[in-house]
Every structure is written in C-alpha cells, then in structure tokens.
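User: I'm putting together notes for a lab meeting next week and I want to include a structural view of one of the chains we've been expressing. I don't have a solved structure, so I'd like a prediction I can at least talk through. The sequence is below, exactly as it appears in our construct file.
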Amino acid sequence: MAILQLLPQNPVHGPMLTRTSEHELIENGEESKEKEEEDDEEEGKEGERRKKREEEEEEEEEKEGRGGEREDEGGQEGGRGEEVERRREEEEEGEKKKKKKKKKKEEEEEEYERRSEKKEEEKGGGRRGGGGGRKGRRRRKKKKKKKKKKKKKEDEEGRGGGGRREEE
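Assistant: Thanks for the context. Below is the predicted structure for the 168-residue chain, given as structure tokens.
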C-alpha cells in the first residue's frame, strides 16, 4: 500500500503504474520517509513557536487590563479579557457536563450489574441454569408432555400410581 502512494498520481485513475523496479520504489520510499520526518519536525517546531507566541500575547493582554475597552475587527467595543473569561467559563461548563455524563454512565453500569446479579439469583445455579431460555422452556414442555402421556397410559391400564384411591 505504501508503494502505491509513492507512484505518480493520476487525478482520475489514482496511482499510475509505471515500469520501475521495486528497488527504486523502496529507495524512493525511504527518501520520502526521511523528508516527511524532517517536515514533521519542522512543523512541530513551528507549532510550538506559534503556541508560545499566542500564550505570550494572551498574557500581555491580561496584563494590559481586562476592563480595557478597545475596538475589535467587528467594530464592537469590548475588552479582550472578557473574551478570555468567557472562554474559560465555557470550558468549565464543558468539563462539568463531561463529569456529569461520566457519573451518569457509571450509575447506569452499576444498575445494570445489580440487575444482572438479581437475575442470576432468581435463575438459580445448576448445570442447566434453571429455566429462562428457549431450550429450558422446551425441556420443561417435553417433560410435562411425557408425564401426561404416562398418566394417560396408566389410567387406561387401570393401575393408578399413588395419589387418591377410589373406594369400592
């Protein structure tokens, strides 16, 4: 897959297959990886510099004063400090919502665990699990049918197995 990315790209059909040896492609791939790594390092350095500049600007603006009114690009009057404060408040609200969601999720999981434990207790132990599922129902139904059949057969033959006896 990486080799296809190194091939010259045709905007309509994707990678153009040319007659280049795998050896050349691998060499090109290694060179391009090195270039990518260098580019990533440069971008990382630029990103760090940009972050530092932004932080310094924010600190300077806070030092200048939160209440200091000035005109923004939109033509509105208002201090930069108010905007920073508003952002902080929004972030705090977001964090509160996340915490609330997390707590709710944990409570739901606990409730689920309690329910499943309760079901297990009701179900009972044993090899077949004592009831519940389709197979269990089928098994009980078969037992019941067998019992009925046996009872019917005994009644026909005239020998009652236990239970109430008819007096003569």
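A couple of points you could mention at the meeting. The beta strands are 9-10, 14-15, 70-71, 77-78. Residues 1-59 form one domain.

User: Perfect, that's what I needed.
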